[in-house]
Specification:
84 residues
Length: 84
């Protein structure tokens, strides 16, 4: 997802294709509902939301690695104290 997001930010052709596909599929749904809508704003909101979710996920993975490393260091210190 990270690579996809970066590609979409840097490739105007793919971003335009994504926008067109989104506008068509979501536009059809909204037309059936009969309400007012701003699909470009909705697409931008969803892309931003996915970007934030990806950043949170990456941060959680990084903090998990930090916690595991800290745990191993702590266990190592305990082993050295008791058996060293």
């Amino acid at each position: 997802m990270d690579e996809f997001g970066k590609h979409m930010e840097n490739c105007p052709e793919c971003k335009e294709e994504l926008s067109i596909r989104f506008l068509v599929t979501e536009g059809m749904k909204h037309l059936e509902d009969g309400g007012e809508f701003n699909l470009q704003k909705e697409l931008d909101r969803r892309l931003d939301e996915n970007s934030r979710n990806l950043q949170r996920h990456s941060a959680m993975i990084a903090s998990g690695r930090y916690l595991v490393t800290t745990l191993f260091v702590f266990i190592g210190m305990i082993l050295i104290l008791f058996f060293g």
